[in-house]
Design goal:
81% of the residues lie in helices and 0% in strands. It has 2 domains: 41 residues; 86 residues. The chain is mainly alpha-helical.
Length: 129
Amino acid sequence: MKYWIIGFGSLLGIAAIIGGVWAFRYFTAPISGRVEAQVTIQSGANRIQAYNHFFDLYAAIKSYDALIKAQEDELASTTSTDEQERIRANIAGIRGQKARAIQQYNADAKKSYTIGQFRDWQLPYQIED
């Protein structure tokens, strides 16, 4: 009987330690979560990726302007009705892609806690559609 009580007491002690560790982790999770998030956000790899992300998006948006201009020039020199309709459809598609890229840029720029804080000051904060 004595050994049974010692064994039960040991199991109870181990359960209490495990429960205590879980409780400690539970109650300190908000603090440790904030610290881990800050470390991840401010890491060198994340900073470089975020910084480059905005330049890549901005370059893509600018390239859509060149694509639209090229299609408009081709539209002006085309006499075939079928060809004109195809070119107009191309222009509409490119404008849609440009609008999507602008919305992504603007959404990312507003994320001031994460990626938005790494937008270069030379790039616009928001881009008008």
